[in-house]
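Structure in, sequence out. Go:
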């Protein structure tokens, strides 16, 4: 097994297939309100908190864009569809969490999403008990790509960042983990790997089953 003490997970796009779920809601709204080219600005928001997302959308569509109203409508749509344990999990999540728990590794979550949503979704999926700590976007001043959220997660579990892996799907998430001196693993979701991501990440893997195999590798 590789030498490490903890794994810090992102949530959206890593544990849950929620990035696509949210984007589908925004695409539906874009058709309803004739919002052009929504995919580009939406993908630019991946891995950021609510405040940064709002900023990106206003930059894309202008200060008079009724972002708050649209975001509320998208949120209602999303929760109506996926609350209560209906949000699909990524394959290999439970197996990886079980492996880490069985081997006494610390497990943390570092998500830009607001705390209530994170806790509710983890609880509804039956996996909240795996996590030693949950750090969310409303608990730190600077969102990803700043390293604050990963550093806080490591601090709360008492593990040096260099002894922790970070599993991320977004560019901002990988940048955040790298700047915090964690060992980033990229598992691409909506955004493909880039040359920058290959340089910043320790490895790029297809899914959490591959992450499980990677962490079990005795050759480390």
């Amino acid at each position: 097994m590789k030498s490490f003490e903890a794994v810090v997970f992102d949530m959206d796009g890593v544990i849950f297939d929620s990035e696509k779920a949210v984007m589908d809601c925004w695409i539906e709204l874009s058709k309803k309100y004739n919002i052009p080219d929504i995919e580009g600005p939406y993908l630019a928001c991946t891995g950021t908190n609510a405040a940064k997302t709002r900023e990106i959308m206003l930059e894309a569509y202008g200060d008079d864009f009724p972002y708050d109203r649209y975001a509320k409508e998208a949120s209602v749509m999303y929760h109506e569809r996926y609350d209560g344990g209906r949000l699909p999990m990524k394959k290999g999540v439970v197996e990886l969490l079980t492996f880490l728990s069985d081997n006494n590794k610390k497990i943390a979550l570092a998500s830009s999403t607001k705390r209530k949503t994170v806790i509710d979704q983890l609880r509804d999926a039956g996996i909240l008990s795996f996590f030693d700590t949950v750090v969310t976007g409303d608990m730190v001043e600077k969102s990803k790509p700043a390293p604050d959220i990963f550093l806080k997660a490591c601090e709360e579990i008492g593990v040096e960042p260099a002894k922790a892996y970070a599993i991320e799907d977004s560019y901002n998430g990988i940048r955040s983990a790298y700047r915090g001196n964690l060992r980033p693993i990229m598992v691409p979701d909506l955004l493909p790997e880039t040359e920058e991501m290959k340089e910043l990440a320790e490895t790029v893997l297809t899914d959490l089953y591959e992450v499980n195999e990677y962490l079990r590798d005795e050759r480390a």
